[in-house]
Amino acid sequence: MNILELFQTFQTPEQALDHLEKARWHGKPVCPYCRSEKVCRHVSGDRKAQRWQCQDCTRAFAATVGTIFHGTHIPLKQWFLVLALMLNAKKSASAYQIARDLGMRRPTVWSMMHRVRIAMSRDMAQSELMYGIVEADETYIGGKPRKGNRRGNDTKAKTGRGTAKTPVIGVIERGGRVIAEPVEGRKVHFRGLHKFIAKHVDRDATLLITDEYSGYGAMRSRGFRHATINHSVMYANGMIHTNSIEGFWSLVKRAWYGSHHHYSKRYMHLYLAEACYKFNVRKSKDDFGGLLAAMVAA
Ligand SMILES: [Zn+2]
Fold this sequence. Notes:
This protein is an alpha+beta fold. It has helices at 3-9, 13-25, 76-88, 95-102, 106-125, 190-200, 243-260, 268-280, 287-296; strands at 39-41, 52-54, 60-61, 130-141, 166-173, 178-182, 201-211, 225-229, 236-237, 240-241. The protein has two domains: 3-124 and 288-296, no CATH class; 127-149 and 156-262, Ribonuclease H-like superfamily/Ribonuclease H (Nucleotidyltransferase, domain 5). Helices cover 38% and strands 18% of the residues. The radius of gyration is 23 Å and the shape is elongated. Zinc ion (ZN) binds at residues 31, 33-34, 36, 54, 56-57, 59.
């Protein structure tokens, strides 16, 4: 949904809440406190409140209870706009940009985007195992690209393995989904790499493709069908290449250096989750509906 459609669809707070009710309950409201289905519209008071009443636990509630939209005093329409702007941004939208676009305070927008990213990362953690041709790779992200030699005699190359940037590992299904996350410490170690791949990739249904980094060496002994490409010799050998994951890395890096270089490394996992989420819904016809569903998934 683009921003104009969103404005036209949700002209009143009631329309936004109606939409959220449908996204969350699909016409069968459930009490968020006791899970009872014996609920009815709250009768006393203002229709505008659009609250429900549970006949089991007697509590009153709205569709926002228990979701990221609850208890923020931010109108749902503002939330929807933030979701849409995050989805529509080609690279990644900064809180500065969205705050300017919507005339809101930057810290408010930052915390909204933070909640959205947490929900995106939860959604990613629940995705099914990858299969088919799966490329695995690691990269290093963070900081600002160094210009020249500002810090005196610190002339060591600051790219590649073993630098102070955050190491990130990722797997991608050729033509399909991607999952990436940062790694603790300063280097990617085989143990962490193997754990990550085993967690996200279906060993029996996959041809795993990596470069010849020694960390991947033992994947075959762990039961993976595994092919490697030696990048010092060639970039692709027929279908044996890691171009998909490398394309994703360059997307993430453009987003990082373009929008987030002033943010803390602490949130790298959430920025990665956002990049993965957006990549994974790139072919979706209703990415807004999908994101809203992920936001209210209990
Ligand atoms: Zn109840």
